[in-house]
Structures are given as structure tokens and as C-alpha cells.
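Sat 14:20. Reprocessing the chain from the morning session after the first attempt stalled halfway. Input below, unchanged.
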Amino acid sequence: MNFSRIWLINIVLALFAVCFGIKAYRVWFEGETTALEMQAVERTKPQPKKKIVKKRIPPESDYAAVVEKNLFSLDRTSLKQEEFAKESSGQQVKVSLKEIILYGVVIMDDYQAALISDLRQGRDRKRTPRRTPKAADRRTQWVRVDDTMGDFRVTDIKKDRILLAEGAKEYEILLYDQNKQKRRVAVKKDAKPTVISTAGKSRAPRPKAPTKKRPTRDRRPVKVNTKR
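Finished this time. C-alpha cells:
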């Protein structure tokens, strides 16, 4: 009986060993095949096709700025220099307008004129230690429509202002401008005619000095006594 039980236990253990061996075999070999199959399947998946998007070509007008502002042009100037030139020209115009003073306006039926003083005139000349009235007269002048003052042209004359144009730009100069200090304009005096006499030079007779009257003495005869 003991011998039969031992063989029975051995047979059962052998069956367990065979079952566990089969399972281990499946785990080791079938697991690798499934992993390889999964990798192969993943690799053989068809990749999605890339969609080709057609880009719209911009018109040539969009490249006009690039063509005009050529970076390799010999005549190219930097943007800062252009801006500085514009600012400096604008400042020069402002300074020039400040030096033009409007004193008065005459408007009649067919006549329009304005009395101005252009302080820019005579600046290049040598300054004299003392300004003469003739120099002030040169700066003060009457202007009419279409007259030019340097770079400016008179386009219109109104009651309280005159309009000046420089190219396409237009400026105005007010008659009552508080920012400008007006100077007195020298008024020309009417010259009197000079009288020239052809007669010889003669001195006017001097008035005689009044003579002092001396006191008169009584002249009586002197009596001489001859008696002794």
C-alpha cells in the first residue's frame, strides 16, 4: 500500500510538472511571437498621405516697396538720415516763418498789398556795428499776390493774414501774432526842396548897440574977481 501511494504521488507531481512546463513554454515562446507580430503590424501600417496645400502667390505690387528700397543700391541712404533731413527742413521752415513779420494789409477793389518785414534779408552781409535806417528799409517791403520771398510765394492776402506757399505746402502769417515781437518801421519823411541863391554871400547888417547917454553938466560962466 505504501508503494502504491508513493507512485501515485509521483505521477501527480509529474503531471503538475508537465502542466507547468507547457505553460512556461507558452509564456516564453508565444509571448515573443505575439510581440514580434505586434511590432511588425505596427510597422506595416500605412502612413497617412500629406496633403499638398497650394499657396497663393502674392501680386507684384506687394514687392514694389522692396524693389524701390533696394538694399544694394549705391544711392541708398539710411532711414535715420532721411528722417533727420525732414526734421531739419521742417525746423528751417518754422524759423523762416518766424522771421517774416506782417505789419499791415491794404485791400481795395482791385488792389491787394501787404507790408511785411523779412528779417532774413541781408543776413549774409557783414554786420555793421550800428544798423542804419536804410538797412531796415530793405527788409520792409510791400508785397502782392504771386510775389516771391525766397522760397515762399504769396498766394492770397486777407484782412488779418497772408498765405504763403512752398511747393505743395501752405502756411499763413497772422497780422496779430502774439508770438512775434514787431519792430517799429522807419517812416520816410518827405524831403523838403533845397533853395539855392545865386547872389553873392552878404552878411546881414548887425544892429547897432544902443548908446548910453552921458549925464549933462551945467556949463555956467566962471566969475573972475579982479579986485584986490
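The longest strand covers residues 100-107.
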